[in-house]
Amino acid sequence: MTEQHVHHRTIRSFVRRTGRMTPSQERALAALWPRYGIDYETKALDFPALFGRSADIVLEIGFGNGETLVQSAAGNPGSDFIGIEVHEPGIGHCLLKARDLGIENLRVMSHDAIEVLRHQVPDGSLARINLLFPDPWPKKRHHKRRIVQPAFLELAASKLRSGGALHIATDWENYAEHIDEVVGASAYFKLDERREHRGDQPLDRPTTKFETRGLKRGHHIWDWRFVSV
């Protein structure tokens, strides 16, 4: 989605898809948002106050239906998780899963991830950022919309603590080449590990819905862990 302005335009790396929500997802958004949701504001969040403790903060950008995000939160009770997603049915699904499992170390947001990072995430506050199977924008004329760009890497690095990790995964070979090139040229990250596999070697993460879909299409999977420097 591209927003037009009089003097400049901002390129969005996502398309806000409303989709059809089930009645239970609609009820979840209404009833569970006060428990799990964070509204967008142009001021920094206080993570210890938000979660009632001091712990490692993991931010996931584009969590889809939230299955893997909830699984990660459930499996890592010593860390706190924040997920960002703009697809409302996926948010509703995530809230239902979190409620059913009694998850407390998870909060969600529905806003542009770049604006959230810029305005709401304090510098040096994150232990890890997950960017798992972002929109590949496969057409060449749309490559500029890919979220993995030099400006994003600079912003992400500023929000990670020293030695914090950026995890990226994709099932699109052309995007994998793009990630290798763009992050490889960045002064803000160094490569810690890279894997190419067929779904059998995910790098410190659960298997995602988008990964399963790509595997059914015969795609390979690429995983990276980059460390901020």
Number of strand elements: 9
Shape: globular
- Would you identify the CATH H-level superfamily? Vaccinia Virus protein VP39
What strand line-up does the widest sheet have?
A: 5-4-3-6-7-9-8
Structural class: alpha/beta
Strand content: 15-25%
CATH topology: Rossmann fold
**Low-confidence runs:** 1-11
Count of helical segments?
8
From the N-terminal CA to the C-terminal CA, the straight-line distance is 32 Å
Q: How do the SSEs run, as a string of H and E? A: EEHHEHEHEHEHEHEHE
Helical amount: 25-40%
Q: Any overview of this molecule?
A:
The protein is of the alpha/beta class and 229 residues long. It is 35% helix and 25% strand. The protein has one domain: Rossmann fold (3-Layer(aba) Sandwich), CATH 3.40.50.150. The chain is built from 8 helices and 9 strands. Helix 3 links the parallel strand 3 (56-61) and strand 4. The chain is globular. The relative contact order is 0.15. Residues 1-11 have low confidence and may be disordered.
